[in-house]
Amino acid sequence: MKVADLIIKFLEKAHLDLMFGIPGSQTCPLYDSLYSSSIRHILVRHEQSASYMADAYAKFTGKLEYAMNRRTWRNKSFNWYCHSMD
Question: Which end of the chain has the lower number of beta carbons within 10 A, N or C?
Answer without folding.
Answer: C
